[in-house]
TrEMBL record:
It comes from the Bacteria. Residues 1-28, 154-179 are annotated as: Disordered. GO terms for biological process: photosynthesis, light reaction. This is PRC-barrel domain containing protein. One of its GO terms (cellular component) is plasma membrane light-harvesting complex. Residues 28-100 form the PRC-barrel domain. It comes from Mucilaginibacter terrenus.
Length: 179
């Protein structure tokens, strides 16, 4: 089933720092946070976010693997937003149940590089079971791997009664847009 707000044109994925968008008020800015596995091993840190400006949805976390605890070479990889979780108590991003072999299977990311459908399929195949129902075309981003509500919904701001369902808000008037 296609989603009405699902803009799946991968050519429109943009690095947050190369845009006029900003993190929405009340949402954590995860850039610079450590990325860890379920065992607490540091895999790297959040270097950047890759998002679709038309849908205002974050699709990937760009993880810089410098100074990691598991012997990975320095480089950057894309992690789909929905495979990650926010640590409820510390400023960490957790990638549950990920293995070193999975990380080594991810293509290295270079800034400014266009992400084509083959690259996205390669990333997706690292996280999907071989017999899983893989969505293509307009349904590609409907998969839980791209569910930013699942990612941001686990952590509440101190004193907050609800969790915002969107990391990317409607831009305010002026030059900067809020994401």
């Amino acid at each position: 089933m296609a989603s009405t707000d699902n803009t799946d044109d991968i050519s429109k994925l943009t690095e947050l720092s190369d845009s006029d968008f900003e993190i929405a008020d009340g949402q954590p800015d995860i850039q610079g946070w450590d990325v860890r596995d379920s065992e607490g091993n540091k895999l790297g840190e959040v270097d950047e976010l890759l998002f679709n400006p038309a849908s205002r949805k974050v699709r990937y976390i760009i993880v810089h693997m410098e100074n990691n605890d598991i012997g990975l070479e320095d480089g950057r990889v894309l992690m789909p937003i929905g495979v990650a979780e926010l640590d409820e108590h510390k400023d960490n991003v957790i990638i549950p149940d990920i293995t070193k072999a999975q990380i080594l299977s991810l293509p290295l990311y270079e800034y400014g590089r266009d992400i084509d459908s083959d690259t996205e399929a390669q990333i997706r195949n690292v996280f999907v079971a071989p017999d899983a129902n893989v969505m293509v075309g307009t349904d590609f981003y409907d998969h839980d791997h791209f569910n930013q509500t699942k990612f941001y919904g686990k952590r509440r701001e101190p004193g907050a009664d609800t969790v915002s369902k969107s990391y990317l808000d409607t831009p305010p008037e002026g030059n900067n847009e809020t994401v």
